[in-house]
Amino acid sequence: MVKKGSKKLPEQKNEESTADKILISAQKLFVAHGFAGTSISDIANDAKINKSLIYHHFENKEKLWLKVKDTMVEKFSPDLQSYGQHTHGAKVTLRSFIEDFVTKRFEFYLNNPDMVRLIHWQRIEDKEKPLTKDRLSSSLSIISQNTIEELQKKKEIRNDVPTDLIRAFILTTTSAIFLIQPHLLYGAKDKKIAKKYLELLIDSLMDGLRPRKP
């Protein structure tokens, strides 16, 4: 065990360097081809190492896939954690809640296409296996149920729909374009397109969530 403040031995640095190389290559290939479309040999060739080293560091492809996603979640954790943090009490309004949550989530997806592609592959390959039950899935599903309930009590959000369905409506509506037609935003020559779509998204959610008139 290395004591705090002591220098790492050369072999420890080499171990970390090899693991990092594997993770970098694995992320690139998983993002491009998905879990099923990427082999251990592909990763080894890209990292220019013997594939036995991948088994040494990560045991198997599934654990490497999970580690790649955990690493990405750790990298973006400040943004992900902010998803569930909203103002509570008398000051919160439907508009402030929707603008805050949706804008943060939308901009996160817009600025992190690799994360979006990984989520896309995960959805395609989801067969109720453990590889989808990880921090990526849970971190991207954070939304304040308390805030929704507060707004329902204040009659700002319709209360004829269960809270879980409202959460799902907000989450899926916000991410849909990135998972279904991402080229409309990522490939847009007009940089104002994303802003216009965000405005449309917020207005649509506001209209859908407001209480129905008798």
UniProtKB/TrEMBL annotation:
It comes from Candidatus Nucleicultrix amoebiphila FS5. Residues 16-76 form the HTH tetR-type domain. InterPro entries: Homeodomain-like_sf, HTH-type_TetR-like_transc_reg, HTH_TetR, Tet_transcr_reg_TetR-rel_C_sf. Keywords: DNA-binding, Membrane, Transmembrane, Transmembrane helix. Residues 39-58 bind DNA. This is HTH tetR-type domain-containing protein. One of its GO terms (molecular function) is DNA binding. Coiled coil: none annotated. The chain crosses the membrane at residues 165-186. It comes from the Bacteria. The keyword RNA-binding does not apply.
